Amino acid sequence: MNKTSGLVALVTLTIACATGGSGALQYTPPGWYDAPAMLHARSAHAVVSTGDAIYAIGGTGAGGQPVLQVERFDGTQWRDETSLPGDGLNAPAAVAIGRRIYVIGGFKTTTNVPSSDVLVYDVDSRTWSNAAPLAEPRGGHAAAVLDGRIHVIGGGNSRTTLANHSEYDPTTNRWTERAPLSRSKGSPAAVAYNGKLYSIGGRSGPGDFGDVEIYDPRTESWTAGPPIEPRGTAGAALYCGTIYVFGGESQARKSTLDEVLRLNPSTNVWEPMTPMRAPRNYARAVVFRDAVWLVGGNPVVGMSHSSSGSTLVERFSGCARQ
């Protein structure tokens, strides 16, 4: 460790510490740091990390139009990597497994017409292919990887929000319908944590939800977790050994949110953390280089299908004390 510059120390989980003049480890509180802006403004997009880079995919941007460019961030700068096939998607979900990125569903262009397509991008060959489609088209859903399989929850179509829970096995290229959510909800957040799937918040029509549901694949069932204040379109990530929730939108308050919540693993209670510098919905959160990167999103409330978004990227770094 370089004692002069106080570089971050990593111990199993991402534990940020700085060294003082004596060389003793000192606690560095969580905080926000500047990061390079994207080339293209985005909202209702998807963001993934492949370990060596962040990819920003789909959504709408300048003039509320679809963003076809897929951007790649290597830790230093953003560049256009490829183009999304088709005419554009808003509110898709995306995950990375190994060197492949799966872009799942979404609403076509700036409409509320959902897609069932699953696009697969190979980051090494830089080529697109198609996986087996969703059984039912949807947009505004969430996805997370649990035990090597992709779980897709919630979302909506052109008529209603959905409680559907679908599981994709990349080894067989097959979808299986699993136990649904307790109720229909669009724009939830999803995180895999301690061998279980967490569904956080969401909305249906003018109503927001604060319930947290926990899926156990061993029992094929959902149980209730500690709730949060109602919101939809929040970002979420597994960081420093627990779940963090970022921003989102409250229809009841008619505002985008700057709130950051951390699930205390000792008490199983959500606690507030240092707020975001800029409130926004669809602020997609992804872990990269031992920090959470909050990518894009929109500061204006109530513009889900044709938002002009933002190029803003911020980095959240440092673990909270237990």
Please sum up the structure shown:
The chain is mainly β and 322 residues long. It has no helices and 30 strands.
Structure, explained:
It is a single chain. Helices cover 0% and strands 43% of the residues. It is an all-beta fold and 322 residues long. It has one domain: Kelch-type beta propeller (Neuraminidase, 6 Propeller), CATH 2.120.10.80. The strands form nine sheets. A four-stranded antiparallel β-sheet has the order 3-30-29-28, with no helix packed on it. The protein has a four-stranded antiparallel β-sheet with strand order 4-5-6-7, with no helix packed on it. Strands 9-10-12-13 form a four-stranded antiparallel β-sheet, with no helix packed on it. A hairpin with a 4-residue loop joins strand 6 (69-73) and strand 7.
CATH domain fold name: Neuraminidase
The strands making up the biggest β-sheet line up spatially as 3-30-29-28
- Sum up the overall morphology in one term: globular
Kindly state the number of beta strands.
30
CATH class membership = Mainly Beta
Instruction: List the helices and strands in order.
Output: EEEEEEEEEEEEEEEEEEEEEEEEEEEEEE
Treating each run of at least 4 consecutive H or I residues as one helix, how many helices?
0
Mean pLDDT: 91
Class by SSE composition = mainly beta
- The fourth-level CATH homologous superfamily is Kelch-type beta propeller
* Helix fraction by DSSP (H/I, runs of at least 4): under 10%
CATH architecture classification: 6 Propeller
Q: Which spans have pLDDT < 50 for at least 5 consecutive residues?
A: 1-25
Number of domains: 1
Q: Roughly what fraction of the amino acids lie in strands?
A: 35-45%
Distance between the termini: 24 Å
Largest sheet: 4 strands, antiparallel
